[in-house]
Amino acid sequence: MLRSPNQAARPVSPPDARARLLEGPILATLLRLSVPNIALVGAQLAVNIAETYFVGRLGTQALAGVSLVFPVVMLMQMMSAGAMGGGISSAIARALGGHRQDDAEALAWHAVLIALALGAGFTIVALVFGPSLYRLLGGDGATLGDALAYSNIVFGGAVFAWLMNSLASVLRGSGDMRTPAVILVAGALVMIAVSPLLIFGAGPLPGFGLRGAALALVAYYFAGSVLLGWRILRGATLVSLRPCRPCWPYFSRILKVGVPACVHAALINTAVAVTTGFVGVYGAAALAGYGIGARLEYLQIPIVFGLGATLVAMVGTNVGAGQFERARRIAWTGGLFAAGICGAIGTVVAVAPRLWAGAFTRDPEVLAVATQYFHIAGPSYAFLGLGMALYFSFQGTGRMLWPLLCVSLRILIIAAGCTLATRAFALGLGGLFAVTAAALVAFGAMYAVGVWRFFSHAGQRQKK
Questions:
Q1: How far apart are CA 87 and CA 437, in angstroms?
Q2: pTM to 2 decimals?
Q3: Can you tell me the distance from the alpha carbon of 59 to that of 300, in angstroms, rounded to the nearest whole number?
Q4: How confident is the model over 57-94, as pLDDT tens digits?
Q5: How far is it, in rounded angstroms, from Cα 378 to Cα 225?
Q6: Cα dist. 342→339, 347, 369 in Å?
Q7: In DSSP terms, which residues pair with 205 in a beta bridge?
Q8: Euclidean distance between the first and final Cα of the chain, in Å?
Q9: Is 270 exposed, middle or buried (0-12, 13-18, 19+ CB in 10 A)?
Q10: Burial annotation 361-385 (CB, 10 A radius, 16+ → b, else e)
């Protein structure tokens, strides 16, 4: 019979993985556990680049079709890995930190049920509304047909994508960063090798074109799900996967972090979309130049995720154990480290913008816009890194209202500031880029205030 989350928990001895999260040196532990996550991020970026390259060989039409689907695929990845996945890791980490082993195992099973439900939901939505969405994004004729050929297969296997990322999050929540990284990096390398065979064929094996690219991606999701599930079911991990009766309190522990995190992911994309709308008024060259800058901003989010997945586990475990002072130091250490990484990237492109922009275009007008953007916005990337790292720390605490306020403030500054810059003061693109930079500074600064407030109040409550 399933025990209520509020009943006494079955204590367990603290294995090395949990002891490391609770007692190990903060920076050394953070970096050591983050290395596998960063390797995984690199492998998944390589998959995206390789797939784009292979599909590009099928022609411009095929590439355009996949481009229509790509934002939706990325949204699913962000939601299943970083958003709902963060909710899963946070809930399990806090349970293990409080020595509630039964709760942790029940949460793992409920994470699987959530993954199955949301994966099925993505499949239904994509199959029913996909044609309308891709038309809205500009697809028609053969391009729309290619988009649907790719989309129907990828989202037909959406359950496996959600299941793979959810099982990986279960392991990360227990402090095991290595297992999901090894399995998923190996799968990514195999997928890169198999994709051209399925797309173009070899010998007696026929090529399936875009459908082959989609099949390779679904096969990666499926294999990752099977291997991660097998690893957990073997009992070789801190958390076992044991079916139990569904219980709302367990769903609630995951969803109260996962749902706001999914909204946060959508709002991050909205912030870029709002800026894009203002920039688009200045023509195609301005849009292309800003797009080059926005692409680098997007790239920093998965880089911070490599660090952030560890922050969720470390902060969550220590909050669950009542070690709020240590959790505070972990949050600040991770935030400042991420700020340093992203700040270094921003400084490089601010000083030498063509190192990045020159890889995408030789058009002097586009390069001029990208250069202007990096000169103004590049130095603010440190605050992007700070804010995103502290966002993952908030996931670890289980409190998600403040992150939604932070990203909403960013959108508000962009919308109001860009309106004033263009209509009231006629500041041109430079004004828009200054507003973008100011919004990033406010985003990071507000996260810093939130972390200070949360741990100050938590410490006061603990003393009482």
A1: 29
A2: 0.79
A3: 29
A4: 787 678 778 777 877 887 888 889 888 998 999 899 88
A5: 38
A6: 5, 9, 21
A7: 202
A8: 36
A9: middle
A10: beeeebbbbbbbbbebbbbbbbbbb
